[in-house]
């Protein structure tokens, strides 16, 4: 009769393996930093540092405090539209009309200001209300007309621009350059930081908190990630679409007020034309997925700053201003291509 064999120490070997696993899998300090900051943000920071080094090495005036303030104030208006565009895109939409809404709000703020005996508060409130109504029109067309957001806002881009030109006869309206509130918005500062930048940071901060720390933000991500699943989860998609486009209109109305403050009059086109391209470019460059469900306000702000530094640098270096639009278009294409490569999806026209 043979003796009973002792059981193999499987548990011992497994325990030993488990004991070594945590140390083997423990992420490196660099990996932890990348996870905390985000790969997209790190990439943007590296690109920003390189652009600053190149421009600064060619023109020492770039690092002057006055020039840094110029960069900040220059990107404030486009930054406002970019951060709210990020929210719209995360939800699976796109608002091409924000520039036209800003122009219409600019004209409205100046005309109301003049008509009410130079009452700035009414001009500001009127501009935001006009923006809100424009956003609701966009949302209603999309929800009740069942129109694709791109087509809907492409149509209203032309319509809102036309309305601004009609009520202003295509000319600048009013004069707000002597009003203390408009002067404070345009040239004032708090703690040495221009008011325009504070407005951008305030709006961006509120949107960041909404997206990252509230149930509303989680539902917006869910809506853009999978609208069918969001509907099954009980999310009122139509209500959210209306609210998101209304929000975009309100922020565009604020941008219109800032245009009026900076120029001293209501501008139907000048100051607002092309802002929609800048907003979409910054959002895409910041890693916001154009199909929805992914994006970050902080990343968009970094992209806005990168664009502002690049345009400012091209101006300081005497580059033909027409190349600025070429640079913006190129960056948008590059951002979209990078998104496609990261997604791993099949590219149109390329067999697998």
UniProtKB/TrEMBL annotation:
Transmembrane spans: 36-56, 68-90, 121-144, 150-168, 189-211, 240-261, 297-316
GO CC terms: plasma membrane
Name of protein: Monosaccharide ABC transporter membrane protein (CUT2 family)
Cellular localization per UniProt: Cell membrane
Region (Disordered): 1-26
Membrane topology recorded in Swiss-Prot or TrEMBL: Multi-pass membrane protein
Keyword annotations: Cell membrane, Membrane, Transmembrane, Transmembrane helix
Low complexity: compositionally biased ranges: 9-24
Gene Ontology molecular function: transmembrane transporter activity
Pfam families: BPD_transp_2 (PF02653)
Predominant subcellular localization, coarse grouping: membrane
Methyltransferase keyword on record: no
């Amino acid at each position: 009769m043979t003796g009973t064999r002792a059981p193999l120490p499987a548990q011992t070997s497994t325990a030993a393996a488990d004991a070594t696993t945590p140390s083997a899998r423990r992420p490196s300090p660099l990996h932890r930093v990348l996870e905390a900051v985000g790969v997209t943000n790190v990439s943007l920071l590296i690109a920003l540092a390189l652009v600053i080094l190149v421009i600064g090495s060619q023109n020492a005036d770039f690092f002057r405090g006055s020039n840094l303030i110029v960069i900040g104030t220059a990107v404030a208006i486009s930054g406002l539209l970019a951060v709210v565009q990020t929210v719209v895109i995360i939800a699976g939409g796109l608002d091409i009309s924000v520039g036209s809404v800003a122009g219409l709000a600019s004209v409205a703020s100046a005309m109301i200001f003049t008509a009410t005996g130079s009452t700035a508060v009414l001009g500001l409130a009127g501009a935001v209300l006009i923006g809100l109504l424009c956003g609701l029109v966009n949302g209603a067309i999309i929800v009740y007309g069942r129109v694709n957001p791109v087509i809907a806002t492409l149509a209203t881009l032309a319509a809102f621009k036309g309305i601004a030109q009609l009520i202003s006869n295509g000319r600048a309206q009013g004069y707000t350059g002597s009003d203390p509130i408009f002067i404070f918005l345009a040239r004032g500062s708090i703690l040495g930081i221009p008011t325009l930048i504070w407005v951008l940071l305030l709006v961006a901060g509120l949107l960041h908190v909404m997206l990252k720390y509230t149930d509303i933000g989680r539902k917006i991500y869910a809506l853009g990630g999978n609208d069918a699943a969001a509907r099954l989860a009980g999310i009122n998609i139509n209500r959210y679409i209306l609210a998101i486009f209304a929000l975009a209109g309100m922020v565009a109305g604020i941008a219109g007020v800032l245009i009026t403050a900076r120029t001293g009059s209501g501008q139907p086109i000048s100051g607002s034309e092309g802002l929609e391209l800048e907003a979409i470019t910054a959002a895409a460059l910041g890693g916001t997925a154009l199909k929805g469900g992914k994006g970050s306000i902080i990343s968009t702000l970094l992209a806005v700053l990168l664009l502002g530094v690049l345009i400012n640098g091209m101006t300081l270096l005497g580059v033909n201003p027409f190349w600025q639009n070429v640079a913006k278009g190129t960056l948008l294409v590059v951002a979209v291509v990078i998104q496609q490569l990261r997604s791993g999806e099949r590219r149109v026209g390329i067999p697998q």
